[in-house]
Design brief:
This protein has 520 residues and is mainly alpha-helical. It has a single domain, classed as Growth Hormone, Chain: A (Up-down Bundle). Helices cover 79% and strands 0% of the residues. The longest helix has 30 residues, at 428-457.
């Protein structure tokens, strides 16, 4: 019998040898389909990125044109994050009810209205109403993009594909910075309105594109639409066997018997998110509790480490570092956008090769060193106001660029990848919504208090504080987050069970990843 197996294997190998060129072609075609769908979904993240980037420069002109003080500037810049809480919280239930694809359309429509209102704003109050509407759209986009991408992606390329929302956040930030620079020379009352109003363009493109995308196969299975889910999986898998295996895993996770071959089945529980909040917050199992802590923790530390203060207030940071002209400030800010975009592209190609955990720990360590250097440089400049210390100015610019670079390699993309893949299917949409809510609350608090903080403790002291928070975050990541590379979405709950968790913690420095994979 062993001889027969060897013969069959040999025959199989021989049968493949005459057509070595065909398999790669098939793989490329299908990968392009998955890539196209996930790119279109991830483009919803441009909405947040563009708003972040454009407000960085627009607020310089808004402050002078509308004659507002620093307190109103803080509120204007940071309030969108709190407004987006409404969208991210509602998006979980919405996407369970009407599907992931139409939730992306809703996010685009809401942001379109908000961007139009901001572009036409005649006063501060009208501008704040536009910020509210745009914030709700951003909340929807932030929650749904990583969920849809994770659910559509094959296991082996999930890290790369689910990092695309962060790529487009950075691309949106860069577009915002470029928009600032392009319109900066126009009259003050026109420039900022054009900067904000141009945000309608990506939202229109996103809304139209989303209608051409397939629905998430996991959501279709949750609705009992097995035949439609199978068709999507056949298009997004390398082989028919892989598609059937993925379908079988999803059916098992939802509670549908694997032997069921009907195209439409009845799924009475969890079809529209019923009972999810109780399972997440009231009576979570030990593994679900660990998943929830991991997701909320990584979202908290992503924002508490100070990234939004650098992105939103980079002109002020550079001004404190000694750069004075508005055009020079905006030019330096464009360099920040390019740094973030370049390094996030590097991270996307490494996530599935070396894993989430190593990139996360390496990137966070680099952030700590950069924040310490930035705090030191700003403190030196602040204590020598009459001297132009070129070395300190250069140090501040380099450390700002290195900080956003290390963030983009590690914590930036991995936060979204990790939180979108670790929740069980029945809890994923609303679980990710909770993580995004923590992300937005933290971002809003720091964004709305940054000026007050550096006035109270000096700007150098503020960045030393962020370095301390980043150090705590590194310890949290090292002790609490296991490696998820190579695991299917249906395996994640098992990965976080207590016995496997302990196996994964042991010796993580050298063999932890192997032990964790063997445990599962």
């Amino acid at each position: 019998m062993g001889d027969r197996k060897m013969e069959n294997k040999a025959d199989s190998d021989v049968s493949r040898n005459p057509i070595p060129v065909m398999a790669p072609k098939k793989k490329r075609r299908r990968n392009k389909y998955v890539l196209a769908c996930t790119v279109l979904a991830s483009m919803s993240s441009i909405l947040l990125g563009y708003d972040y980037g454009v407000m960085t420069g627009a607020v310089l002109f808004i402050k002078d044109d509308l004659k507002i003080n620093d307190t109103k500037v803080e509120i204007l810049v940071g309030i969108l994050n709190l407004y987006s809480l409404i969208g991210s919280t509602a998006a979980g239930r919405t996407s369970d009810w009407i599907g992931r694809r139409y939730t992306i359309v809703i996010s685009a429509v809401i942001f379109f209205v908000g961007a139009l209102m901001m572009g036409l704003a005649t006063n501060y109050a009208f501008l704040m109403v536009g910020r509210f509407v745009a914030g709700v759209g951003v909340g929807y986009a932030l929650m749904i993009a990583p969920v849809y991408t994770a659910e559509l992606s094959p296991t082996l390329s999930r890290g790369f594909l689910t990092s695309l929302p962060e790529v487009f956040i950075n691309f949106g930030i860069l577009l915002g910075y470029v928009s600032n620079y392009a319109f900066a020379r126009l009259p003050e009352h026109i420039s900022w309105r054009l900067m904000l109003g141009v945000g309608v363009i990506p939202s229109v493109f996103l809304g139209i594109s989303a209608l051409m995308m397939p629905e998430s196969p996991r959501w279709l299975v949750m609705q009992g639409r097995i035949g439609e889910a199978r068709q999507v999986l056949l298009k997004t898998s390398e082989t028919k066997e892989e598609a059937e295996l993925r379908l079988s895993d999803i059916k098992s996770a939802v509670g549908i018997p694997e032997s069921s071959n009907e195209d439409v089945v009845h799924v009475p529980k969890h079809s529209h998110g019923e009972g999810v909040w109780k399972e997440l917050l009231v009576r979570p199992s030990p593994s679900v509790r660990r998943v929830l802590i991991a997701a909320i923790g990584i979202h908290f530390f992503q924002q508490a480490s100070g990234i939004d203060t650098v992105v939103l207030y980079s002109p002020r940071v550079f001004e404190k570092a000694g750069v004075k002209k508005k055009t020079d400030l905006l030019g330096a800010t464009v360099a920040v956008g390019f740094s973030k975009t370049i390094f996030i592209l590097v991270a996307t190609f490494l996530l599935d090769r070396i894993g989430r955990r190593r990139l996360l720990l390496t990137g966070t360590a680099g952030m700590i060193l950069s924040l310490l250097g930035l705090g030191f440089g700003l403190t030196i400049i602040e204590h020598n106001p009459d001297k132009k210390l070129m070395w300190a100015i250069v140090l501040c610019i380099i450390t700002v660029l290195s900080f956003v670079g290390f963030f983009s390699i590690g914590l930036g993309p991995i936060c979204w990848v990790y939180s979108s893949e670790i929740f069980p299917l029945r809890l994923r949409a609303q679980g990710v919504g909770l993580g995004v809510a923590m992300n937005r609350i933290t971002s809003g608090v720091f964004g709305m208090t940054f000026i007050s903080m550096y006035n109270a403790m000096t700007i150098g002291g503020t960045f030393f504080m962020f370095a301390g928070i980043a150090t705590v975050s590194w310890m949290f990541f090292y002790t609490f987050l296991p490696e998820t590379r190579g695991k299917t979405l249906e395996e994640m709950e098992t990965l976080f069970e207590k016995s496997r968790w302990r196996s994964g913690e042991k010796g993580e420095g050298s063999h932890g990843q192997v032990e964790l994979e063997n445990a599962v």
